[in-house]
Design brief:
Blueprint: H1 2-12, H2 17-85, H3 89-102, H4 125-131, H5 140-147
Protein name: Sec-independent protein translocase protein TatB
Subcellular location: Membrane
Pfam family, one: TatA_B_E
């Protein structure tokens, strides 16, 4: 390195040497960055190829599992059909019809008072007390304590 520096000092001269050294340094930095980018791109492409191979193996395994499940399901259906073939057909038909008749579809729940926090009307307290309308909310523990049966002595 010292020999190269001495030759450059003699050939280029002391006035131009700092500017040439700066230029050579920037060019070397750019070259290093370019080489690093090329290496990174090559590594990315290799990883991408590995991921593609891994994806293909996983997809193949998933296809194998899917086909084995289909064959198992078809075997099960055949076994089920063979097992249920000897049963009385009228029993299954009547049970199917009763389940269809007992199935009731209820409408979606809608709270009876849409705006229950808003005061609905001016009902006097004496009227509420006479008719048993709750005017204050009780916590769960207070409700249990209030309505717990009393012990007899």
């Amino acid at each position: 390195m010292a020999l190269i520096g001495a030759v450059a000092l003699i050939v280029i001269g002391p006035e131009k040497l700092p500017r040439v050294a700066r230029t050579v340094g920037t060019l070397l930095g750019k070259a290093q960055r370019y080489v690093a980018d090329v290496k990174a791109e090559v590594n990315r492409s290799m990883e991408l190829d590995e991921l593609k191979k891994m994806k293909e193996t996983v997809e193949g395994a998933a296809r194998d599992v899917h086909t084995s499940m289909q064959t198992t399901a078809s075997e099960f259906e055949k076994d089920w059909a063979a097992t249920t073939a000897g049963l009385d057909g009228s029993t299954t038909a009547s049970s199917d019809s009763t389940t269809a008749e007992t199935f009731v579809q209820y409408p979606e729940y809608k709270h009876p008072k849409k705006h229950w926090r808003v005061k609905q009307g001016a009902v006097p307290h004496w009227y509420k007390a006479r008719n048993g309308v709750r005017t204050k909310a009780l916590s769960g523990a207070a409700r249990v304590a209030r309505y717990r049966p009393q012990k007899l002595n």
